[in-house]
Fold Protein kinase domain-containing protein.
Amino acid sequence: MDQIDYSQVRFSFIGTRKHLFKDKQYHVYVFDDSLLMGIKPNTQNPKYYIKFGINIKFRWTLKKTKEGWIIESFYFPYKKSAKPLFGSNYDLQRLKEFTNLKVTFENMNELYQQFQLIGQGSSGKVFSAIHTIEQKIYAIKSIKKKQLKSQLDYNQGAFKMQVSILKLLAKYPDNFITLKEIYEGEDMQCLVTTFLEGPTLIEEFERLKTTNQKRFSSLEVKIILKKLLINLATLHQNRIIHRDLKPENLMFKIKGDRTTLILVDFGLATYESFEMLFYPKCGTPGYVAPEIFNLKSTSKYSTKVDIFSCGCIFYKLLTGNNIFYGETFDEVLRQNKKCQIDFNLPIDQDYITEYSINLLQKMLLKNPINRINAFDALNHPYFRDINTNIYPSLRSLQFNEEIYEDEEINNEKREEDNNYIQLPKTSRKCQLIWNLSFFQQNSQKTVFDTNQFIEYDHLSGLRFVKVNQSPFVSQVLE
């Protein structure tokens, strides 16, 4: 071990290791990337040294007091075993918060009480749960380990990619779902995120139908699109592609506030700079960019695929209709592949104007080289009449300026920050993850072979049984 520079310590505290005959006190020092413990203060020969990483697992033990639940101790890995360290609730809470996205936690059932199933995305199920200590509601995305280990490690690599991306995006809570903690159990991998009060965009579309409305107001359309482009500009500045933009994956943090739109479900997201993409042909029919359909083994695509998907959403916002229409999944898929778009929409000078048509056309260009990017789209004349005094959150892109100066620095930073990823080797065989809710709601014919099975959920101490459909086959675009 190199010389330990104690001037870099973020915080320290005294912890206790309990033994049969005599307890021992340890000086605990927490650095940005590691934790060490020694009998003597500022020792150069600590007894325990833990380098933080996603493969390091901490387990927290709780104790109930008159004031409520507190953290009594935590277990840390040491020589293929787990050692407990006791400390004050204040110190251990601080340690837990500091290591939230630096290590993986265990024993989720003690820390969260499962509430209800709230969604099912392209790569897992989402539950609401109450935090035992905080008594706050969070969302938990759970993925079965056996699912992650399938398909030549595609899913395992995609999961680690998702974690890496969500960690990077955690500093943008106004733009994206915020990852709080990572948990692992015997059968499940779980991501704890913020719980969003508002509905999804697709739910809002459905609500409008019940009120005999087909569309949002033209002002709401502009606000929703601008906030979506702000989110995409932030995402693309970090060289990340979402790859599954659709109304189901857009949510409002606050019900009724259109300026709080954020992106969720990063199960198919990837770094633009990666040479080998997981599930290179992916997305949801009706929103897939033409370059994904036409992808060759030696070609790549860019963040512009998200702009095309955004254009499909913009079309639905303007007209109330899907841009690629079909009664069945196959029809939607065929229309999306053909990508024949009729821009001859009647000008009404409210929704359909010269400016809105122009921006729509630029977002939906078949050639991604000529397609507009998020930054330029935000400066389009279509947005000029939005009153930023009424909507101050839309005045600027509100970027975190701590961005990478060039691609080389960007890749270097990611490699340093995410050296735990160790992405598995993959072939270029094109495979696809779909959102099951799409088929359940919109198709008469699916591409899945399914069978019914009984599944037990173990996020909480309570068990309940439900019948689901299990997908086996997922090749579509080839």
User: Anything to note?
Assistant: The mean pLDDT is 80. The radius of gyration is 24 Å. The CA atoms of residues 177 and 264 lie 5 Å apart.
